Amino acid sequence: MKAIIVGAGIGGLSAGIALRRTGWDVTIYERVTEVKPVGAAISVWSNGVKCLNYLGLGAEVAKLGGRMDNMAYIDGLDGTTMTRFSFAPLVAEVGQRPYPVSRAELQMMLMEAFGDTHLHLGRQVTEVAQDGDTVIATLEDGTTDTADLLIGADGARSVVRTHVLGAAPERRYAGYVNWNGLVPVSADLAPDDQWTVFVGEGKRVSLMPISDGRFYFFFDTPGEPGETVPREAFRDTLRAHFDGWAEPVQRLIAAIDPERTNRVEIHDIDPFHTWVKGRIALLGDSAHNTTPDIGQGGCLAMEDAVVLAIALQTNTLGVEDALGRYQARRSGRAADLVMRARKRCDVTHAADPQKTRDWYDELRREDGTKVMRGIISNIEGNPLG
Q: Beta-carbon neighbour count of residue 233 at 10 Å?
């Protein structure tokens, strides 16, 4: 049996590895000539790590991951600690450490695990169709490929999703811009074993440790969509947004390399539950485009890959039946997490300023229990327990 996967991001590559492990012949088409990750790093929470363990990549992801033993929220303006706590209870409850990792290194690990024989870069799929039990992918140069199954893992602007739904859904601007990159670990920024988050004024600055003595950083700033900021203005723009904030934030702004900093306007898509049309199915951002506010976008894509492979391996009534079971297991969970991320986004970024001020007050009384319970609730319900 042959599968075509459209898209070589985290979800597409994970699906390719998972399907191969169950005996499928898999070909992946990716429109770009060089896979460049959107974003410098990614939080692979325990559910995502369990999926990589299932794919046989547990040791590899552990090497890429930073040791994130603790979490702290800091008042961004005066630099005082609002709350600080250990992640040990979370790890003990869910049975797996989370790992912040370089997104580029994670994708390279997945590409090496899949291999390059059937991975075709610079080959854009422009149209998909089904004729009987055969799916057909038409590429930009007019050539076609056929298979028994086609998976659309082609991201937020998915071509395959338009085929499945019959129209392209509207992307919703979440109200903020995310600036992200990597800097060397430095004690005058944050401890190297801690996820440190500075908050205030509906803005957020975060530092997470990853491998090889690096911090993954991001800034969240309010702004209108469609604005253009030249790279040479990145530091001055961030200084204006964070004028008067604590000294570690100012040092971080001074430490960034604008040429290696990403600026991303954050969007999501209202959840939908039609992921399958015949032998064509959606996976990852094409099925559930979410804001990054709970760090579950990549983890959900890896969960999709695992559930898809298990459904196709364990159900014997045919491909379309197995895809229907995949959709039934995944669409509800994904929709729930998309809406949780949207709710967290609104609180974090002051959609209602009073609710955000109330959250800041809660953090000053927090011992970590409520924050960890929220993270654990996102992890629970994953396909691997």
A: 12
Residue 268 has pLDDT above 70, yes or no: yes
Under 8 Å between Cβ of 288 and 272: no
pLDDT in tens, 64-81: 999 999 999 999 999 999
Tokens matching residue 70: 């603790």
Q: SS3 for 351?
A: coil
The CA distances from residue 130 to 162, 196, 280, in Å, are 14, 49, 8
Domains of the chain: 2-171+268-379 (3.50.50.60)
At 117 the three-state DSSP class reads coil
Determine contact, residues 94/46, Cβ cutoff 8 Å: yes
Q: Which amino acid is at 315?
A: N
Q: Is the pTM of this model over 0.90?
A: yes
Helices (H), 149-211: 159-165
State how far the Cα of 357 lies from the Cα of 377, in Å rounded to an integer: 24
* Residue 307: alpha-carbon gap to chain centroid: 17
